[in-house]
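Standup notes
- DV: blocked on the single-chain target, sequence here:
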Amino acid sequence: MRVIKKNIDKDGTGTITLFPEEPEDMWHAFNLIRPGDKLRAPALRRVVTESSTGSTSSTRVHTSFLLLVKSIDFDPAAGQLHIGGPIIEENKYTKVGAYHTLDLELARNFTLEKSEGWDSVSYDVLREATDPELRAEVIAVIMQEGLANICAITEHQTILRQRVELSVPRKRQGRPMDHDKGLDKFFAQTLTTLLRHVDLTKPKPVLLASPGFTATSFQKYIKQTAITTSDKLLSAALPSIVVAHSSSGHVHALSEVLASPPVLAKLSHTKYARETQALDTFMELLRKDDGRAWYGPNEVCAAVEKGAVGKGGGVLLISNGLFRSQQVGVRRKWVGVVDAVKEMGGDVRVFSSQHESGRRLEGLGGVAAILTFPLTDLDEDEDENDDDQKKEESTAESQNQL
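- DV (later): unblocked, structure below
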């Protein structure tokens, strides 16, 4: 994603024009655009005209619309982003108030104005979207005999690119060749599919994981294919292949694979690996139950207010799903928490909800924290606050009845 034009005032108001260049940029746009924002983008509109004789004809014209964003629909597999809302600027093809859905497209500029101004979280998303060094990608093949899930792990998403399924005969006494032929056919189909998603001119890490020795056998098959076909590009890519063990060949096993120390060491440059490592550190502290690991919105907010998530080891783990809340007050609250932790010198890790590690964090309420010093009874403080609130509500009801 490239910034074409930036017109931001000191108070954070203003517009930024962006140019999406690759499918990953649609994910960034999904995290930038919120209900209530104003979006200008090119559109294709069907216009009906009536002739003097009363006959009608329709044509499609290229124009641009300025929308007040009401709905956002993102398809991660297709990399498509659909933005719906009423038109707030009239042109010769439509009137103000008409509802329209804009499809953001690659290589077409769009201009965004934030309803609440450009805050620190929005700027962080923009920085990640426009920094070419943050576009690393790993191809992972999670497999077992007869099943291979080919995934792309970008800095912000885990996308299932394609699934390969082929029946492989079991090993039977007296007929071992049936199994070997079936396995070779499965490997051939998997490799052909894999090469459609890998640019061999730009080698990137390829992770092969499976129960047993399926991944190792597939690695040997790739090496043998490179030798027999004299494929220099495939041969050059062999050192970038990493083999690991998984409990199954299904996509959910990817999280445990990326949590293993050997794989983390190989893929340490990726955001996914850093997220997984941070969450594992948090879970280890949580098991120790020494008061340095807390999760849940109320508990984490209380810890931040006490200055416990600051310089010297404080880490805030937060899902980017919290910043996509339909309620402006909720989003503003979490932006404030992030700013507070940064001001105290703490580390902020924003987890992608499209990664397995982000889904694990969402299971903890979407937010967790590693504290610089232990705190106890934060959950009891929450109960006391709830009791106080109930008492206030009860008193108010009694007064209303009187």
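- Follow-up: The mean pLDDT is 85.
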